[in-house]
Amino acid sequence: MPGRNHLYVPGPTNIPDAVLSAMHVPMEDHRRPDFPALVSPLLENLKKIFRTEAGQCFVFPATGTAGWEIALSNTLSPGDKVLSYRFGQFSHLWIDLAKRLGLEVEYEEVPWGQGVPLDRLEARLKADTAREIKAVLICHNETATGVTNDLPAVRKAIDAAGHPALFYVDGVSSIGSLDFRMDEWGVDIGVAGSQKGFMLPAGLALLGFSQKALKARESAKCRRAFLDINDHILHNAGGFFPYTPSIPLLYGLRKSLELLLEEGLENVYARHARLAEGVRRAVSAWGLKVCAQDPKWYSNTVSAVVVPPEFDARDVIHTAYYRYDLSLGAGLTEVSGKVFRIGHLGDLNELSLSSAIVGSEMAMLDVGIPVTPGSGIAAASTYWRETAPAIKART
Question: 3-state DSSP call for residue 205?
Fold first, then answer.
């Protein structure tokens, strides 16, 4: 098919040309004397994305799922109790992984489309007078449903309960795109993956550990080898890794961090918020709704669009891909066939995101969903034009 594939799943995301070029490097010795000139600044700049000065960041040749395991296995012991909430496929997977590691997982089922029930979180922690709960696991941005949780409010609930539990955050589809402040919000471990807001191929698990989390590893008894952060601590101190890293991905990460910091994190967050609102206005113009049930939970990195009950969202995804070369995210497990997802994170702007809106609209029309042709892009573009930043005067 002529033209390129329009990739608008919520990860992997589009890779900027500058990052692609940065990864196009010959292989080199990862133990050469000047290798720390690449590694040490990279780890320091990563701290700027996680918004931590007191913490320490790590880069593993792995994925976000491995990042969950790194977080749990390096700080907890088999039999430890952790508290979580299941409100989407990825919160479900984190719970399942914790169980496989031998942790005792207490979790509450929350309707998909909602977020963490803050009042019940605080009440449960207050009831834990024996302090059996060792950690609270929160998915910041539930990619399956397009729900974002209020992390400062979670920290407030933990503090209101006076509870010492560690605070772990799955930030795989948020860090680098949504506001995330590790130190300010008292996050003990943040987990990210390279293929989302960092605009890289999958292959890197990126983590930030607080000093409290680093201290917890001294008593953690979960077995670990390849995923042991202690090996990284020892080698990172000199600017090296304990085993062979993915050198092209490190060069790509250096460039992606440079791009994010050059744009400015507040500008990155604002861009994602503005583009996401345009998508939501398109969805509303179509006469449809997103899966997130309240604006307080709206995600600025992914919108899960609910199709009318007499239609199957998989038909929209199939048509979009084979007829228009547009990749949309599928509904997962409980929302399979009920939603299609538009990923709007990473390297994108109004014109690039317009292709996802127009292509989705055409695919819906093709399968018979009664939307008004042109309504979605008209609503989105009107909003974007009205909120467009000022441009320099023509000279």
Answer: strand
- CA 62 from chain center: how many Å? 15
Task: Pinpoint the alpha helices (H) of the chain.
Answer: 17-23, 36-50, 64-73, 89-100, 118-127, 151-160, 211-216, 229-236, 247-263, 265-285, 313-324, 350-367, 375-386
- Per-residue pLDDT of 320-374, as tens digits, reads 999 999 999 999 999 999 999 999 999 999 999 999 999 999 999 999 999 999 9
Mean pLDDT value of segment 67-83 = 98
Quote the distance between the C-alpha of residue 395 and its chain's center: 41
C-alpha dist (Å) from residue 235 to 28, 278, 328: 18, 45, 41
Q: What is the pTM of this model?
A: 0.96
Contacts of 91 (CB under 8 A, 6+ apart): 84, 85, 139, 142, 170
**pLDDT class for 392, splitting at 50, 70, 90?**
confident
Q: Which of 322, 328, 352 has its CA nearest to residue 340?
A: 328
The phi, psi pair for 148, rounded to 5°, reads -115, 130
Beta bridge partners of 138: 169
pLDDT higher than threshold 80 for residue 1: no
* pLDDT tops 90 at residue 140: yes
Whether omega before 12 lies within 30 degrees of 0, making that bond cis, reads yes
Angle between helices 313-324 and 350-367 (to 10 degrees): 120
Amino acid at 264: G
374 Cβ contact list (under 8 Å, min separation 6): 361
Task: Tally Cβ neighbours within 10 Å of residue 230.
Answer: 13
For residue 235, is it left (φ>0), alpha (ψ between -120 and 50) or beta? alpha
Residues 6+ apart with CB under 8 A from 253: 42, 46, 59, 194, 198, 200, 204
- Say which residues have a Cβ less than 8 Å from residue 224's Cβ, sequence separation at least 6: 70, 73, 74
